[in-house]
């Protein structure tokens, strides 16, 4: 198998999923179309696969495929689905180099008490132990996805409890790590946020329809009203009688991923009481105070560096401008290239605006640096375009540690911060100066957040258990021939 990488413009780590669900008491509402539109709004959370399950009076049907929402869900396929009062949807980025159709979501299953469909965002930290325990009990898995594991845990506990809600509340005690879920049972839409609340999940309403979404931007795109965030540890159940809440697993604490504010979420979303746009603006303002430079223009690496660049500009008084143009029309096939082709792909994805850059001292704001290859490319691009000086500013602290809670920062050795100090990296990429946001600065951007925060990839202070056992890929190991 060739070595493959999935490229983002800014070399940033990727989130693994976005989820959405709708329950409507209004038969006129097309829950499939509403879900389809919502998935477009959540597309930034994953472009590797997309899927929708519709629940029509307890009968569930699914369409899902690899690719972006537009690629994966064709009009013909959507038209083939029956109408239903409940629908759930999923977009996915998979860190697996070979995402297979079997691990795409939503996952649909039939078990002893009927049907269940599930879409998940996050990563379990006790995956190895759960697989071992369940396989020793005879469980058979078709993929290595967290979603299938969670579905299995729920199904295996279902006979012990009178209701699906009670089952899920108790299944949560078996699950460790990060998971925001939307599920549909035959008659309900259910939302679950893990006790850490690592990944966001919120509740919205439009007319007679209730909705659950990874981010509030999906509600805006549907003309729906944001009601509230689902609390860390909470289970929200929506049926024809309205919304009920189960808070047995709520601790009142939480550890929302700070990187949601820096990079993952869309700027027009509000998460746990903090506007993502304002958080990024604030990151830029703090960067300007922590790393002041004299320059002619402040620019952002599109798209997630743009708001922070504006903040830097406002605070420093240096004019804001555009230095880089991003090609937004590159699909999944083109993005999955061999590592050796990375620079050529970057050339197609990102270009400099010569007319704006030439002869200027540029401050360029990026949301993060992971491997260091993209920042090197950007500095050389700006130099080639005639920039007199290039000051590289990063609106997050350096990464030193892996993330076990659903963001693709898995390999400590590949993180450039573990190999070079900021000064060394600055010299290595040919910048005139390089500055990272401080940890205190990072926490300041989420001032007013209603839950606790996770900063573990920057500090190493993990707020929840991390894996103690390596997960063995069931499909890679040798088959028992006896
Ligand atoms: S370790 Fe980093 S990326 Fe992972 S959840 Fe915590 S802050 Fe987010």
How would you describe what is shown here?
- The two termini are 28 Å apart.
- The chain has two domains: 10-257, 4-Layer Sandwich (Glutamine Phosphoribosylpyrophosphate, subunit 1, domain 1); 270-450, Rossmann fold.
- It is an alpha+beta fold.
- The longest helix is centred in the middle third of the chain and has 15 residues, at 276-290.
- Helix 9 (276-290) packs antiparallel against helix 16 (439-445).
- It is 28% helix and 26% strand.
- The strands form seven sheets. A seven-stranded antiparallel β-sheet has the order 4-3-5-2-11-10-12.
- 52% of the residues are buried.
- The site of iron/sulfur cluster has 12 residues, from helix 17.
Task: Please give the structural blueprint.
Elements: E1 4-6, E2 17-24, H1 31-41, E3 49-56, E4 59-66, H2 69-72, H3 75-79, E5 86-92, E6 107-111, E7 114-124, H4 127-136, H5 146-157, H6 164-171, E8 177-184, E9 189-193, E10 202-206, E11 209-213, H7 217-222, E12 225-229, E13 235-239, E14 242-246, E15 256-257, H8 259-264, E16 270-271, E17 274-275, H9 276-290, E18 297-300, H10 306-316, E19 324-326, H11 332-335, E20 336-338, H12 342-349, E21 350-352, H13 354-357, E22 361-366, H14 373-384, E23 389-394, H15 422-429, E24 433-436, H16 439-445, E25 453-454, H17 456-459
Parallel strand pairs: 15-25, 18-22, 22-23, 23-24
Antiparallel strand pairs: 1-20, 2-5, 2-11, 3-4, 3-5, 6-7, 7-8, 8-9, 9-13, 10-11, 10-12, 13-14, 16-17, 19-21
Helix pairs in contact: 4-5, 5-6, 9-10, 9-16
The chain binds iron/sulfur cluster.
